[in-house]
């Protein structure tokens, strides 16, 4: 029988030291809603678990001086929901995070865990990609920053170096007329895994889209930033031609598989449908800002 | 037979006796019992869909520290094929012994090969991995069309169909009139073929048991099942321990829906406990439940219906192929016998084929087989009504079975309530409500046989003048609440003074398992007769005290009274008074009755379903649903509605998303609730119920079984509603988003819409 050690350090340095020393046997525990399930199923058998929820920086939500946000990697969905202003500025990111699981799961699950779990179907990831979030990671060699879309390396894998831990997400300040939205297609109404997930963040000025980002999930080995779709939207009044072009770009970006959750044809079509619907919601919200 | 009429409690929504325990977490389910010295059992399961077992070497597992016992098929009592069937209820022990542990061959991925008991679950699991099995891997067939091909791999070489080795393990038919002549009279004939996928019962509580075998062989079983007597008998058969030595204690059950009418773990845990001398606990994981227990059959059906221009069905032919899984015994009887039964059809052939294939052996699932057959029949009826330009309910009314109709499966109906269900559906607000864009409405009917059978009850008056009722059927749907209502009604006391419990096998007489919608029907007969005996005793006791004739004493409002002032002037003697006086007046008051009950009438339901389809995503959502059913007499309306709503919820899952998906290797690819998609609350509208009460004249309270009928019409009602919304028919379940979108986006659909 393999032995399992559990550590819950108060400082990031301590956590990194223990995590790095444990090598491949080490696992970070945020909410545990993926990790514990995987351990029970026998998919992962860690020798050391480093719980990061006692590290202040990991559970803080901070509004930065420029009006952006820093969200700690282990902030739970419920904590983000209860924050006074986050959801007003980033309703799409919030709705994506809050879609994860049920009330019970929300009390634990974090956006950090959702990203680091590496599932192409993680709900918060396309919304974070659309938001243009920058992640801060720290490892034995110090801190660095990277765009969130560069984190996933493939199903279950990240581009972190050994010993690196995700510390926080930084979301930029919002110009006037900006908003975002996230939609996912699931066969049920909840407690399901995205067949396609799509986040849109955009800025409108006098009815013209001046900036846009589109994140697309569950249709490729990693969540995608669909630049062609954003390009089709930018400069348009979100008219039908622009939406059709953006939807086609999303469908074209898909590299899905046929599996128990959906067929290639279905996912490809749905990616386009969701682009239109999500953009409409984001635009509606942006008009009020 | 006197039907109770005062109805203080019958028909009331009383608080269920097990409610408080269940909502506070006090209820003891199978996995909640522990014992000192207890060890853990685990099952080694076949990774192959089909393989001959050449040898099993357990030496390394047995040598692992912590391992206390290992069992294989050698330890299980064999029921040799050639000796013929040994039936226990509807199960043949030849198949049961091979299902609990693979004997000659492993027949599906997940088939038990060996079981280990060790001091921890982890050690037991590790020991399973140390067991060496030499398999000769064989080609396999899972889907019906693969299993019935002429060159299909044969699961059971001994099984012959039409003289040749075959996977078709049986055929039944019901016939009436002259089919060819009937179709000649038809002005329109519609024939369609349908497929459905295997679906699991989806009970939330996995199979679990704790078993202790004393050195003298006395065995105690705590387990969750739909029948402690079934558990005792099957365990006795498979272990050789006499039934008198096995005490099977029924735990509270976290859902069964038919899936817990057979055993999986109990014989293995008993043998492990016997070998090790330690109590053994076994709890399945969800994955084991999905791979190795239940589900019901996948199916292929063809239904042909002929009708005259004026809407009379003149002939019908149904052919139903149902997957049995690894061992014979699919519910063809339900498909063949129930599907056409709501209708008076003069010329009929309904035939069914039992097809073995390399997946887990089917277990009963709510009205086994009937929903599969009704799906096909009710969808074709919808098409016939459409061609005839008749309202689908009027079409059903025109052909409805009624008192005197001879059903193809045998009986001539007594007074039945089918027509009433269709009329109530027609008259409902729901049926008249307007529909919006991309919304559709469908209807369908269904029938289930319902069962009676063996039941035992003991009713005892406590020393303080209250009542304890013991029955022998595990309570899944609220039967304890119904029995409390009935007993309180008969005795004229508050229902809270009646405590209803489920006895174990050694404390209450034989009672058939909870299935066939029998429980309240059967147990209320024996409880009524026991209570009537008690009332007789109470009247006799009062008569003795008053020194008058027992005939001059009546029982009313919980007390004995003289029948009239002429009989004498005495203050009433209450149940409490008589209980207190019992020691001096003849001793304890109680009565038990055991019967093989008869007179269970079949049940009929008619459902209305509204859907709305998201045509860009292919999602069909049920937006409104009404289940109408002839419930005989709703003893506890809340739990009757609960049965109707539960059946509908399961049927909507079956219609829209639930299915077993297999990998190329023949393994279940979605063995968990994430990818095996049962509906969650937010997927369903509030399900409305209309309870039509046509009392069963052969039951003291008019009870009919209600638990199975509500699943029968659902898939057809949903399919017909989707057709009504889209103008597109679906001939396969589930109608999941990718499949619905594929049909919507098919070129011919687009053309038709333009
Ligand atoms: C019932 C249920 C429903 C669910 N529904 C959804 C859903 O609808 N949508 C969805 O996307 N997901 C869903 N999930 C999956 C899961 O809840 C989410 O992925 C969640 O966001 C994971 O967060 P966590 O904090 O619990 O992660 P954990 O389980 O703690 O961690 C997940 C992985 O990331 C690693 N990790 C965590 N934090 C860090 C860090 N800071 N640095 C480096 N590595 C880290 C862990 O080692 C682990 O490998 C569901 C899970 C359950 C049990």
Please, could you describe this protein's structure?
The complex is a heterodimer of chains A (289) and B (754). With 289 residues, chain A is α+β, with helices and mostly antiparallel strands. Chain A has a domain at 178-287: Enolase-like, domain 1. Chain A contains 11 helices and 14 strands. Chain A has a 5-stranded antiparallel beta sheet. In chain A, helix 5 runs antiparallel to helix 8, helix 9 packs antiparallel against helix 10 (240-253) and helix 10 packs across helix 11 (264-287). Chain A is globular and about 60 Å long. The termini of chain A are far apart. Chain B is an alpha+beta fold and 754 residues long. In chain B, strand 13 and strand 14 form a beta hairpin. The longest helix of chain B has 28 residues, at 519-546. The chains are: A alpha+beta (289), B alpha+beta (754). The interface between A and B is medium-sized, with 20 and 26 residues. Bound molecules: flavin-adenine dinucleotide. Flavin-adenine dinucleotide binds next to strand 2, helix 2, helix 7 and strand 10 of chain A.
Considering the chains and any ligands shown, give keywords for the structure.
heterodimer, A: 289 residues, alpha+beta, Enolase-like, domain 1, four-stranded antiparallel sheet, 11 helices, B: alpha+beta, Aldehyde Oxidoreductase, domain 4, 3 domains, seven-stranded mixed sheet, globular, binds flavin-adenine dinucleotide
Percent of residues in β-strands of chain B:
25-35%
- The fourth-level CATH homologous superfamily of the domain at 178-287 in chain A is CO dehydrogenase flavoprotein, C-terminal domain
Instruction: Quote the CATH topology of the domain at 178-287 in chain A.
Output: Enolase-like, domain 1
List how many beta strands of chain B DSSP finds: 30
Unreliable sequence segments of chain B? none
Structure annotation, total helices of chain A: 11
User: What would the principal axes of the Cα set say about the shape of chain B?
Assistant: globular
CATH architectural label of the largest domain in chain B: 2-Layer Sandwich
């Amino acid at each position: 029988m393999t032995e399992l050690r559990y550590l819950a350090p108060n400082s990031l340095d301590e956590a990194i030291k223990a995590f790095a020393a444990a090598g491949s046997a080490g696992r970070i525990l945020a909410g545990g809603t993926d990790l514990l399930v995987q351990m029970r199923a026998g998919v992962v058998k860690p020798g050391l678990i480093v719980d990061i929820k006692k590290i202040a920086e990991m559970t803080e939500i901070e509004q930065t001086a420029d009006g952006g946000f820093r969200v700690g990697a282990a902030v739970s969905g419920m904590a983000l929901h209860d924050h006074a202003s986050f959801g007003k500025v980033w309703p799409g990111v919030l709705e994506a995070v809050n879609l994860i699981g049920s009330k019970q799961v929300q009390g634990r699950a974090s956006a950090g865990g959702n990203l680091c779990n590496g599932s192409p179907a993680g709900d918060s990831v396309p919304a974070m990609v659309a938001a243009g979030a920058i992640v801060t990671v720290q490892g034995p060699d110090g801190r660095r920053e990277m765009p969130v879309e560069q984190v996933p390396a493939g199903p279950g894998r990240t581009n972190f170096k050994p010993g690196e831990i995700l510390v926080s997400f930084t979301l930029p300040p919002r110009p006037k007329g900006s908003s975002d939205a996230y939609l996912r297609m699931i066969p049920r109404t909840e407690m399901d895994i995205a067949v396609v997930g799509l986040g849109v963040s955009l800025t409108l000025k006098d009815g013209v889209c001046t900036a846009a980002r589109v994140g697309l999930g569950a249709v490729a080995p990693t969540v995608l930033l669909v630049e062609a779709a954003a390009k089709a939207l930018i400069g348009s009044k979100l008219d039908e031609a622009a939406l059709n072009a953006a939807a086609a770009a999303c469908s074209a970006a898909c590299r899905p598989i046929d599996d128990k959750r959906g067929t290639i044809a279905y996912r490809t079509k749905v990616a386009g449908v969701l682009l239109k619907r999500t953009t409409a919601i984001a635009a509606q919200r942006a008009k009020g800002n | 037979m006197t039907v109770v009429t005062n109805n203080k409690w019958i028909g009331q929504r009383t608080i269920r006796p097990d409610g408080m325990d269940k909502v506070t977490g006090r209820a003891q389910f199978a996995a909640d019992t522990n014992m000192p010295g207890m060890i853990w059992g685990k099952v080694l399961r076949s990774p192959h869909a089909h393989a001959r077992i050449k040898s099993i070497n357990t030496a390394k597992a047995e040598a692992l520290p912590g391992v206390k016992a290992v069992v294989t098929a050698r330890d299980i009592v064999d029921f040799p094929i050639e000796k013929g069937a040994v039936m226990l209820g509807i199960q043949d022990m030849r198949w049961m012994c091979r299902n609990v542990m693979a004997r000659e061959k492993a027949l599906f991925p997940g088939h038990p090969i060996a079981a280990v008991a060790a001091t921890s679950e982890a050690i037991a699991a590790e020991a399973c991995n140390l067991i060496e099995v030499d398999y000769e891997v064989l080609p396999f067939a899972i889907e019906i069309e693969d299993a019935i091909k002429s060159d299909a791999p044969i699961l059971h070489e001994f099984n012959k169909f039409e003289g040749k080795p075959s996977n078709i393990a049986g055929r039944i038919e019901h016939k009436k009139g002259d089919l060819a002549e009937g179709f000649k009279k038809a002005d329109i004939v519609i024939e369609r073929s349908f497929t459905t996928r295997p679906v699991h019962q989806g009970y939330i509580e996995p199979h679990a048991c704790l078993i202790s075998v004393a050195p003298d062989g006395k065995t105690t079983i705590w387990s969750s099942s739909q029948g402690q007597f079934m558990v005792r008998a099957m365990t006795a058969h498979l272990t050789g321990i006499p039934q008198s030595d096995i005490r099977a204690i029924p735990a509270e059950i976290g859902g069964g829906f038919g899936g817990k009418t057979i055993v999986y773990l109990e014989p293995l845990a008993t043998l492990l406990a016997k070998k090790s001398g330690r109590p053994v606990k076994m709890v399945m994981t969800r994955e084991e439940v999905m791979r190795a227990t239940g589900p019901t059959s996948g199916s292929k059906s063809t239904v042909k219906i002929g009708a005259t221009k004026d809407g009379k069905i003149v002939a019908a032919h149904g052919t139903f192929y149902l997957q049995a899984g690894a061992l014979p015994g699919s519910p063809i009887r339900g498909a063949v016998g129930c599907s056409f039964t709501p209708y008076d059809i003069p010329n009929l052939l309904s035939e069914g084929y039992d097809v073995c294939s390399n997946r887990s052996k089917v277990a009963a699932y709510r009205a086994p087989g009937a929903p599969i057959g009704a799906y096909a029949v009710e969808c074709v009826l919808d098409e016939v009504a459409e061609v005839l330009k008749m309202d689908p309910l009027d079409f059903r009314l025109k052909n409805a079975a009624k008192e005197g109709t001879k059903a193809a499966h045998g009986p001539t109906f007594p007074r039945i309530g089918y027509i009433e269900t269709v009329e109530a559906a027609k008259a409902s607000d729901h049926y008249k409500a307007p529909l919006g864009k991309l919304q559709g409405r469908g209807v369908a009917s269904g029938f289930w046989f319902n069962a009676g059978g063996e039941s035992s009850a003991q009713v005892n008056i406590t020393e303080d003048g209250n009542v304890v009722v013991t029955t022998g059927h595990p309570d899944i749907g609220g039967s304890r609440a119904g029995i409390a209502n009935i007993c309180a009604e008969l005795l004229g006391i508050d229902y809270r003074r009646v405590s209803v419990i489920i006895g174990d096998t050694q404390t209450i007489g034989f009672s058939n398992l909870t299935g066939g919608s029998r429980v309240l029907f059967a147990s209320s007969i024996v409880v009524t007769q026991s209570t009537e005996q008690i009332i007789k005793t109470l009247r006799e006791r009062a008569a003795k005290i008053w020194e008058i004739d027992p005939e001059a004493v009546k029982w009313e409002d919980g007390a004995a009274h003289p029948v009239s002032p002429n009989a004498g002037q005495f203050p009433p003697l209450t149940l409490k008074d008589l209980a207190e006086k019992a020691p001096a007046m003849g001793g304890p008051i109680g009565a038990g009755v055991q019967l093989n009950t008869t007179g269970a009438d079949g049940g009929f339901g008619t459902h209305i379903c509204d859907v709305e389809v998201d045509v860009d995503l292919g999602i069909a959502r049920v937006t409104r649903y009404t289940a109408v059913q002839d419930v005989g007499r709703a003893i506890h309306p809340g739990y009757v509605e609960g049965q109707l709503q539960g059946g509908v919820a399961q049927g909507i899952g079956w219609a829209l998303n639930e299915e077993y998906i297999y990998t190329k290797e023949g393994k279940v690819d979605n063995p968990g609730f994430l990818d095996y998609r049962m509906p969650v609350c937010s997927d369903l509208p509030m399900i409305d119920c209309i309870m039509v009460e046509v009392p069963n004249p052969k039951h003291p309270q008019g009870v009919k079984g209600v638990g199975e009928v509500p699943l029968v019409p659902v898939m057809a009602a949903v399919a017909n509603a989707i057709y009504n919304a889209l103008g597109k028919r679906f001939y396969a379940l589930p109608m999941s988003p990718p499949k619905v979108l594929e049909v919507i986006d098919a070129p011919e659909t687009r053309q038709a819409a333009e």
